[in-house]
Write a structure and sequence with these properties.
This protein is an all-alpha fold and 276 residues long. The protein is 77% helix and 0% strand.
């Protein structure tokens, strides 16, 4: 009896699914765009975002300029976002902003441009183009809608993305430092240690209030000392003095750092060369 009941339920489920699929295909082939739109809304409410998105993609152009035009385009963006197609979603939300700049969903569409790019932003070690795009989108949203209830969320995400870019710069500077005296990648002259110094200094200028300041400063100090060690004779004295000054600057800014002993050691070694 139990086996018969299980078989009956499986057959009933298959018939229902077949019926739903058959109805969807019938709607999809329909030339009644308003009917497609209403059916897409029903699918959206049921969480069937891929099917709803397919129907909406087919009707948004035909509904443009009608009373359903705005909602259909915004809903298309949401189906893509909820289906995790973030790149396509960001483009659809941008399109809504240019097509309906004063539309009823303009504020949310503007927010979801940033949100979509945020979701597609990779880990710090990878290319951060989507991260920069998300940052710009959130900044634009805050400028356009300063009193929006979504502003706190956008601001929090903006700071989070900035931290990701800071970590990216720190990883770049650390990589240059680790490469040290290797010249295989220095095709335009200079050295990895100089690249580390420049990368870290630029990061401190761009993000002066980052909590990674000491990490960047440490890399600058270590790189300047090692650069002095590796210098040709005519540059050695100048670079040792520069490294010594950097060590004093580090001690002044971070007197409680766990790296103060290293700074004092560098200073002593620099003085042996400079005679100061």
């Amino acid at each position: 009896m139990r086996q018969r009941t299980t078989a009956y339920l499986a057959l009933l489920t298959a018939m229902l699914l077949a019926g739903c699929t058959s109805e969807y295909n019938r709607v999809y082939r329909s030339t009644d765009y308003n009917y497609k739109y209403e059916y897409a809304k029903q699918l959206f409410s049921q969480g069937k975002y891929s099917q709803a998105g397919a129907l909406l993609s087919d009707v948004v152009l035909s509904l443009k300029g009608t009373e359903n035009g705005q909602e259909s385009l915004y809903m298309l963006g949401m189906t893509q976002y909820l289906s995790h197609d973030y790149e396509l979603a960001s483009e659809t939300f941008k399109k809504y902003g240019t097509t309906y700049p004063k539309g009823m969903f303009a504020e949310k569409a503007c927010f979801y441009v940033g949100q979509s790019l945020y979701e597609s932003a990779p880990e710090p070690r990878l290319d951060q183009t989507p991260t920069i795009g998300a940052l710009n989108a959130y900044q634009q949203f805050i400028e356009l809608y300063p009193k929006s209830s979504l502003r706190p969320q956008a601001t929090a995400k903006l700071y989070e993305l900035q931290d990701k870019l800071i970590i990216k710069e720190l990883l770049n500077a650390q990589l240059y430092y680790n490469l040290g005296g290797y010249f295989g990648n220095c095709t335009n002259g200079g050295s990895n240690l100089e690249a580390c110094i420049i990368t870290a200094q630029n990061a401190l200028k761009t993000y002066p209030f980052t909590d990674k300041r000491e990490d960047f400063a440490l890399l600058i100090m270590k790189s300047k000392y090692e650069l002095a060690q590796q210098s040709v004779e005519e540059k050695k004295m100048e670079r040792y003095r520069d490294a010594e000054d950097e060590c004093y600057g580090f001690l002044n800014e971070y007197p409680d750092s766990k790296n103060t002993e290293l700074a004092h050691k560098y200073i002593a070694r620099c003085k042996k060369v400079t005679g100061d």
